[in-house]
Design goal:
OB fold (Dihydrolipoamide Acetyltransferase, E2P), 4 helices, nuclease, alpha+beta, single chain
Length: 127
């Protein structure tokens, strides 16, 4: 597996095919954005060199695979949000646990919530 950024990985399947997966329900800071590299490192710490359960949930409008990553039953996508390393991607997520994780990270001022007025990636991309 290769970590691309805080919400994208490339995974090697059992048949040795590399697939790029966008993590379901979250949007992490972009490269060049505050916390972009920190978010990538967090995902790497959680998932790199681990045997993961990769669950395909669909494809996005660009044809990319959308996946949930699980490690021993722990939802890595949600964990990124709980650590303050990503926002819930409200446009695409309906998972209450993700919203609760974001509220917890925000109230504890974890990760990107430690700063004042963090800019969501969807706004950063428009700049």
């Amino acid at each position: 597996m290769r970590v691309i950024d805080g919400d994208t990985v490339a995974v090697l399947s059992a048949d040795r095919k590399m697939t790029r997966c966008r993590l379901y329900g979250i949007d992490a800071p972009e490269k060049g954005q505050a916390y972009g590299e920190v978010s990538k490192k967090s995902l790497s710490d959680l998932a790199y060199r681990k045997v993961l359960d990769v669950r395909l949930t669909g494809t996005d409008r660009y044809g990319r695979a959308i996946c949930r990553l699980l490690l021993d039953g722990v939802d890595i996508n949600r964990e990124q949000v709980a650590r303050g390393m990503a926002w819930v991607y409200r446009r695409y997520s309906q998972d209450r646990a993700y919203f609760d994780a974001e509220a917890g990270a925000r109230s504890q001022r974890l990760g990107l919530w430690a700063g004042t007025n963090p800019v969501p990636p969807w706004d950063f991309r428009r700049q």
